[in-house]
Amino acid sequence: MTASRVLVLNSGSSSVKYQLLDMADRSRLAVGLVERIGEETSRLVHERITGDSAPDVAGGKREQLGPIADHEAALKAVAAELAADGMGLDSPELAAVGHRVVHGGTRFTQPTVIDDEVLAEIRNLIPLAPLHNPANVTGIEVARSLRADLPQVAVFDTAFHSTMPEHVARYAIDAATADAYSIRRYGFHGTSHAYVSRATAALLGRPVEDVNVIVLHLGNGASASAVRGGVCVETSMGLTPLEGLVMGTRSGDLDPAVVFHLARVGGLSVDEIDSLLNKKSGLLGMCGDNDMREVLRRAGEGDEAASLAFAAYVHRLKKYIGAYSAVLGRVDAVAFTAGVGENAHQVREAALDGLAELGLALDLEANAARSPQPRLVSAEYARVAVAVVPTDEELEIATQAYALVTQ
Predict the structure, then answer these.
(1) Is the pLDDT of residue 133 over 50?
(2) Which residues are catalytic?
(3) Residue 376 carries which DSSP code?
């Protein structure tokens, strides 16, 4: 029996998302989520997928409520659910476990089989991603303890962006200081940008090497990338996920002197400023809602704060589309993905409005239609295609992990 299955784990500070995929046909076998780990109200939702690869297909959905003490208990509960469906961690069909790791620094630019040295290096990168890498490390440690013989593969959010030229990745600050503290632009959402850029080329029926794409990953966190021939040459996030687009709770691009002003004049501490810019800014800070659906509803009813937040969000998108058009020189497609990008047709319409000189024009009827499938929503006469491509980071992680362990 050929081992062709990959378990993908995305370990957060109080959650574990997981999917089991069969890479023989790229199908999903099970999906699930453990949330509120460490609380009395922990919840595990597990679904066995039958008859279709889509996560929303009915088939063997189960839910557990009750305290789950830690990540070890969470992953053991996940293993038990998989075993109940005949797909446990001891299955000979399991080829690898793929782990989403947020920050790989400059050390990890490719998917990497995890050993003790690699794990230690990921720990060393915690100062660059203090909210994410510790949870990623915990997930790896527990998974290794449960199946020590099974290849564990780290797939890094930052890796796809490691191809940015040095003059793009560098900040214009004192070089010695930048080197001493690893200050440079790393970028995030890399697995999504990699998947969507390739899927867009496939949608156009062209080799990825021949296609230049601007990818707009618009969720609660949001980022843009310029991808030339399958290679990232620019992205909007930087040292941290704070830089770039207006997001649900993050400010995006900001004059650095705002930080000094808040400290000197406002008397805010570093931690208070960090919380303000990461958790209380963006759409939430401007209008009190970080859910784009609610922002759109309120704006439609004439709410001035929501209308202003939406206008700021869209304006920043336009700036990046224009900037990345200049960076690429030739743009073949603009691809929208993630929760807002895939579902908010008003965002796509507003972001591209007035960009006809860049070759961008929408088919308004196609753009407004809902569909779970990758699709083109550009006008037939448009020089640049506009695509809506549902992202699939789990499939991307599984693909990279499986390719590595079967080489």
Answers:
(1) yes
(2) 157
(3) E
